[in-house]
Amino acid sequence: MKQNYRLTFIILLLESLLCATWLAAAAGAETREFARLRERFASPPPGSGTVTLYWLNGTITKEGIREQMRALRDQCGFGGVAPLTFHAMQPATQPPYLSELYFDVYGCILDTAKELGMAVVFYDDCDFPSGSAGNQMRQRHPESLLKYLARSRAMVTGPGEAVIAVPNGVLMGVVAKNLDDGKRGVVTDEASWADAPPSWTGRSVGFRQPVEEAAIFEHLRLLGDDGKVLHEDRFAGNGTLPREWTSVGAARLESGGLRASGCLPMWRTGLMLPDRFTLETRFTIVNSAAGLAFVAGDADDFYFWQFHAGAKAIRPHHKQGNQHTLLDAVPFAFVPGRAYDVRLAVDGNTVTTWIDGQRVAVHRLAEEQRKTVRWKAPAGRWEVQTFVCATVPNTRVWWTISIHRPSSNSSR
After folding, report:
1. How far apart, in whole angstroms, are the C-alpha atoms of residue 399 and residue 75?
2. CA-CA distance, 199 to 275, in Å (whole number)?
């Protein structure tokens, strides 16, 4: 019996020694691993830094690439770059997307990353043109581009003819609503449509203020080509806007003017814009930006000029369907709380911006092929809406692909 006790004791002692040895080894390994991690954190190896977006806007050269990527690694501590090619936004990437020189320049990015021990993220987003193949899809297969249902509308007092400018596409339907008795009907078979020259005639004007933006507007004035005032709204007092203003969102009248927010957009009904016109307003930015909209006869197709205090820039946009196209931004140091006198002079496809009496920007709008829908309205007040299956402008596909970390044996 005593021998069994001794044997058990010896076995337990050996197990304890083995366990202690294992624990000591594990503790040693943990200490060494901690020391290695600490050393790695204090002196990270090449390529360990964060990856920065690398905007390929404007003219790109191999010399510029090498200089910039070395500075990104040595001066900024970045471990890699994510090149972003510009196509629709300006200035566009040069050499042009998918050209032989473009691939040559992009290869320089990969070679430089391999030389410097940096990573390259193939990031496909933010105006990246891969979904449209550098606009080649639009040129070769326009029928395959993304479509949307474009709604346009106009007001007409009959007997008279409603004339509505619509995007080029397939006419899906025309609906007329009698505003006197509320009855509506489909009048597609009674309407006609044809190609139309570029024109603003029949469209309207207003403001564009999403919920994160707020501005106070003192007045809105529409002038014709001869400088005569065609229409003017002066905002003063307290309360709500008259019924001629639609989609007002959270806009309200205050003692200082119209405080606009939460409207995408709001516009004045009953206006008939000539081909050449000027908008004048006086605004004060309360939060972020102020936005002046025109051709806003439709919440799905209009231009708006965003005067942004945060971005310190004039930022013109074209909204068509669910697409926002940003035109060239022009630097301007807007200050919240200060009033600005702004004038937009629209001459065909050219828009000139004046602020406090100084010309500060000239923008050229894209030429668009449009059509005109006409419907002869009987007696009464009518709202006419058209629905067209149109192609989304500047169609592109957004996605993220993968990460490529060049190694010593990798090839392009």
Report:
1. 30
2. 6
Say which residues have a Cβ less than 8 Å from residue 342's Cβ, sequence separation at least 6.
Answer: 280, 281, 282, 283, 292, 307, 353, 354, 355
- 3 state SS for the chain: CHHHHHHHHHHHHHHHHHHHHHHHHHHHHHHHHHHHHHHHHHCCCCCCCCEEEEEECEECCHHHHHHHHHHHHHCCCCCEEEEEECCCCCCCEECCCCCHHHHHHHHHHHHHHHHHCCEEEEEECCCCHHHHCCCHHHHHCHHHCCEEEEEEEEEEEEEEEEEEEEECEEEEEEEEEECCCCCEEECHHHCEEEEECCCCCCCCEEEEECCCCEEEEEEEEEECCCCCEEEEEECCCCECCCCCEECCCCCEEECCEEEECCEEEEEECCCCCCCEEEEEEEEEEEECEEEEEECCCCCCEEEEEEEECCCCEEEEEEEECCEEEECCCEECCCCCCCEEEEEEEEECCEEEEEECCEEEEEEECCCCCEEEEEEEEEEEEEEEEEEEEEECCCCCCCEEEEEECCCCCCCC
Q: Is the pLDDT of residue 360 over 80?
A: yes
Whether omega for the bond prior to residue 265 falls within 30 degrees of 0, making it cis, is: yes
| Average of per-residue pLDDT across 385-393 | 85
Give pLDDT, residue 196: 60
Instruction: Read off the tokens for 1.
Output: 């019996």
CATH class of 205-364: mainly beta
Burial of residue 220 (CB within 10 Å: 0-12, 13-18, 19+) is buried
pLDDT at 382 over 60: yes
User: Do 283 and 340 contact (CB within 8 A), yes or no?
Assistant: yes
Q: What confidence tens digit (pLDDT) does each residue in 39-74 have?
A: 777 777 666 678 998 988 888 899 999 999 999 999
Q: Which pLDDT score, from 0 to 100, does residue 38 have? A: 79
- The identity of residue 232, as a single letter, is E
Residue 253 has pLDDT above 50, yes or no: yes
Q: Where are the domains of the chain?
A: 51-138+397-404, 146-198+368-391, 205-364
Backbone angles phi, psi at 104, to 5 degrees: -65, -45
What mean pLDDT is predicted for residues 168-186?
A: 92
Neighbours of 93 (CB within 10 A): 25
